[in-house]
Write a structure and sequence with these properties.
With about 210 residues, the protein is of the alpha+beta class. The protein is built from 7 helices and 6 strands, in the order αβαβαααββααββ. It has one domain. The N and C termini lie far apart (about 80 Å).
Length: about 210
């Protein structure tokens, strides 16, 4: 009788552990809204009239968690791209990165027009043809540093909107998606003739 009781207890514990194991929590990542936010931020913060100032007050993000049990439910609402944009604008380092990128727009266009650098699927600029001068190499380096800051800022914004801990684990989970959407914007806005790289790593001149 005792053995049966022990076996039943073990079985019950196993079932409880197994049932917990199938519960997963995925961070909701709204790709379309993220792209809209990237575009809005560039238009607002990279222009000549851009100002580096923070919005007053604390952000009040809504929970956008997705729980997977028997079914999947989303808590999405209208105007999410605006919320993402406003969240990013509360990050001084990201706002400054956009401002610096705006200052060197003409230089980056010059390098891409000449085919010297291309838009990689990492969201960064990489060398393609010819030789970069030391000055241009420095410009590309600074541009990529700013882009990295922007991508990480977007990652943090999505984490905050999901009201999850802003730790390295969540950053690593979302960074690839934030990078992919940033790279997509770069390719979409590229001019005809610029080098662009697709998701599979293939390079071509934009048609």
């Amino acid at each position: 009788m005792m053995k049966r009781g022990v076996s039943f207890t073990k079985a019950l514990v196993f079932l409880l552990v197994a049932s917990c194991a199938v519960i997963t929590v995925n961070i909701y990542f709204p790709e379309k809204d993220v792209q809209e936010a990237y575009r809005a931020l560039e238009e607002e913060l990279m222009g000549p009239e851009a100002e580096t100032k923070e919005d007053p007050g604390e952000a009040k993000p809504q929970s956008l968690l997705r729980f997977e049990l028997a079914a999947v439910a989303y808590a999405q609402e209208e105007g999410l791209s605006v919320k993402i944009t406003e969240t990013v604008k509360r990050m001084p380092d990201v706002v400054e990165a956009y401002r610096q990128m705006g200052v060197r727009v003409s230089d980056m266009e010059r390098l891409r027009d000449a085919g010297l650098v291309g838009e990689a699927n990492t969201g960064l600029l990489v060398k393609r043809e010819g030789t970069l001068s030391s000055g241009d190499e420095k410009l590309v380096e600074m541009e990529n540093e700013n882009r990295t800051t922007v991508i990480r800022g977007m990652t943090k914004a999505i984490i905050r909107i999901n009201r999850l801990p802003e730790n390295e684990e969540n950053m690593e989970r979302l960074l690839p998606q934030a990078t992919e959407q940033f790279a997509a914007i770069r390719v979409d806005s590229a001019k005809k003739g610029w080098w662009v790289q697709d998701k599979d790593g293939n390079w071509s001149r934009k048609q």
